[in-house]
Amino acid sequence: SSLHLYRNKTMKNIARILILACCLILASCNSARYVERLRQKIRIEKFDSIQLQGLTGALITLDATNQTGRNLSVESAQLTLKYDGTRAVTFQLREPVTLPKRYSGKIELGMRMKISNPFAAMGVWGQLQRRDTQHVTVSLEMSAKFGGFKKNILYEDVQLEQFLRTFALSLDDIWNIISE
Length: 180
Description:
eight-stranded antiparallel beta sheet, 8 strands, 44% strand
């Protein structure tokens, strides 16, 4: 019975880390100078459900809005979280996802997850819980389209809070989404 409780807690933590990855990937689609305006028009309203697929992936359903006149497509994305320079966990978008123009509704994100170092992953989670992320860095490689414009986005070993600020987000914003 304690193994069952441990498994449920572990799966819940994995789901929360997957939500964090989705937030970071979708938030990073916005160009820095348009962030505030686009943030008002392109939003993740809430996370609807997470269907874990073993220990290596999930199908995440969320309510999102795109009030612009252009489609937002994420063609590929890979996000890595590191703890004290050690690769902890990597998330990869399984297939392209599009948020259609003038759309409000559900979208699904298929994510793959690879835990490179379980102890580093626990360190990342502990830092997130304490909201002390000085030892957590983010790397992101992504290809996205907004209307007819294609953009490749690359961030390497950026402090998590600095990465979030780039997209007008805070750790509290992410925590509020994860905690729902």
